[in-house]
Design a protein that fits this description.
about 140 residues, mainly alpha, 2 domains, 7 helices, globular
Length: about 140
């Protein structure tokens, strides 16, 4: 097991039962929001999955290892934590569906301050996605 693998699978659980319960609750809520974010791009998936991974690392080795080795979520979390970035295709796909969803939501919501809030959230999420370095292509 190389150093990067070791770093990803290291779990430092809290000794306090209360903290482990809080980490568990926050972890599962974040995981749920991340899953919802896969279906409805208005929610940013990666930050919620990263919060879930951080909480599980302090709470449950089993849940943490399941998450980082999951066939759907695992690669994104491992690559993000390793600083490998996000593929440009994924960025474009994410931004496209984020803005389509935002514009549809704004069209159907008649409360002006919620429309503004949705636009601001989408703008900030877009900036975050754009600022993440693109994943480099393997040469060979």
């Amino acid at each position: 097991m190389d150093l990067e693998q070791k770093k990803l699978t290291q779990v430092k659980t809290s000794s306090s039962k209360f903290k482990r319960i809080i980490y568990s609750i926050v972890g599962y809520v974040s995981l749920t929001l991340g899953i919802i974010g896969l279906i409805f791009p208005i929610l940013p998936t990666t930050p919620f999955l990263l919060v879930a991974a951080a909480c599980f690392a302090r709470n449950s080795e089993k849940a943490y290892n399941w998450l980082i080795h999951n066939r759907i979520f695992g690669k994104f979390i491992r690559d993000y934590r390793a600083g490998k970035g996000i593929p440009i295709k994924v960025k474009i796909y994410t931004l496209f569906f984020l803005w389509i969803t935002i514009f549809i939501s704004i069209f159907f919501i008649s409360i002006f301050w919620i429309q503004i809030l949705l636009f601001v959230i989408a703008s900030l999420v877009s900036i975050h996605i754009i600022m993440i370095k693109p994943k480099s292509r393997k040469k060979g």
